[in-house]
Amino acid sequence: MKKIICTIVLCLILNMPAFAKFSEDVYDRYANNDDYNGAINYCLSEIDNYNRQIPSNPNNDVLYYERGLAQKHLKFAVSAAQAYDYFNENAILDNAFADFTTAINLKPKALYYADRAEFFELRPFYEVLADYDKAIELAPNESNYYYLRASHRMLKSIGTADPGYVQMKKALEDLNKAISIAPEEDELYYLQRARVKHVLGYNPENIRQDIKKAKDILIKQNELTIEEINALFREFDTW
Predict the structure, then answer these.
(1) Less Cβ around it within 10 Å: N or C end of the chain?
(2) CA 44, CA 58: separation in Å to the nearest integer?
(3) How far is CA 126 from CA 67, 130, 174, in A?
């Protein structure tokens, strides 16, 4: 309560309006309970809220970003609920992309570029890569951006011709960087690096070290049982 009051007071002092942010925690509570109709309604409510605020604050980058975030999650919820009779997924994606672009034009931020880059299905490979490049330029110590760029490179390498595995090798560089910045951050960094090394023909023992590290991180988090962890790693059993 004190934090809310302080935020409002600060906004009044600075003559700035206080804006409610889209809550991914609220969305996740619906999604984790498979209540995608609830998730859809939450997203629509937030989008309507931003629609009412933007006309009187047309130069506020945060409002466009938050509406884009709500649109992005609406797309996820519509897909999960298979509510295609009521929503046009492509239109939702276009709206979210437009909002992220407007936010970037108003105030370029690493987060905005990284979120826009997630719309890779709408754009050529190198345009998406440019967004990740810009996000990393603006926030060079954010490990997750290197991981996301690596994952995008992997899609390019697997989905189309990649002579000499150029993109796969660059993906490995990105994953090495992510791990060097935050070695205990996420088991996915190590699992993704294991996949890349497997494709590039690395020594199996080297690959297994990454798999073991990923498993160790999950065990330390103490959120899954050993049986559940082992089930997640089955794809690596023969590596």
Answers:
(1) N
(2) 20
(3) 26, 6, 16
